[in-house]
């Protein structure tokens, strides 16, 4: 799932490449991506792009005088470019392995911006709105740890005293925007906090460490992804992970074996020595 560091790198790229260019055509391949049927994506034809920004994990492309194309990337959504008239995406991924395009925006210079979805079900969604806050998921977003104005008070309101597993709180977009499975694993490992403990049970020292790790991991990851081509962001994210996706490998801090544990409908990773005082967490049997 794309998370704030990769989505920020994507919107930076979109802003640099699209600003000032006009949309010449729109091809909706999968109608289910249209979330504002009264204002279809085709209504953007002829409009000029004013810029791009991020709201949590959502992409916001400002178009025309006051419109916004908001894209929720969902679990497996992403973007790529190709030349108009070519069936080959401008990417290093072999054509047979490339995810399908669900919606495409042709630009006035012949380049095409495609939004793709590699999942078994359509999780990509597009809204045309006057204000991004009209998108329900954006309206409910909590504060973003990458925001320069994000404070300890914001963090405490989101986390302290919650009778909920810490990892689940980090995932909850209404509490903290932009964090998903991968970066929550990295944050909790950096903070040396158990992912399954309740936030209400955190000690003052653990809360301090978790706050510093939440801001530090997100901000540093955004900085690290800056300038990476959008077709290389997934690989850059995977390469940067210290515990997420590293089950069976040695913890880079203590050398213990990183393990999987069950979380919601997926798995996540942690270090028993660094995070759970040696306790091995349950992994759902297949």
UniProtKB/TrEMBL annotation:
Signal peptide: none annotated. It comes from the Bacteria. It catalyses: Hydrolysis of DNA containing ring-opened 7-methylguanine residues, releasing 2,6-diamino-4-hydroxy-5-(N-methyl)formamidopyrimidine. The keyword Metal-binding applies. Keywords: DNA damage, DNA repair, DNA-binding, Glycosidase, Hydrolase, Lyase, Metal-binding, Multifunctional enzyme, Zinc, Zinc-finger. PROSITE patterns: FPG_CAT (PS51068), ZF_FPG_2 (PS51066). Residues 2-122 form the Formamidopyrimidine-DNA glycosylase catalytic domain. InterPro entries: FPG_cat (IPR012319), FPG_N (IPR035937), H2TH_FPG (IPR015886), Ribosomal_uS13-like_H2TH (IPR010979), Znf_DNA_glyclase/AP_lyase (IPR000214), Znf_FPG/IleRS (IPR010663). It holds the Pfam family Fapy_DNA_glyco. Residues 242-276 form the FPG-type domain. Its cofactor is Zn(2+). Belongs to the FPG family. This is Fpg/Nei family DNA glycosylase. The lineage of its organism: Bacteria, Bacillati, Actinomycetota, Actinomycetes, Micrococcales.
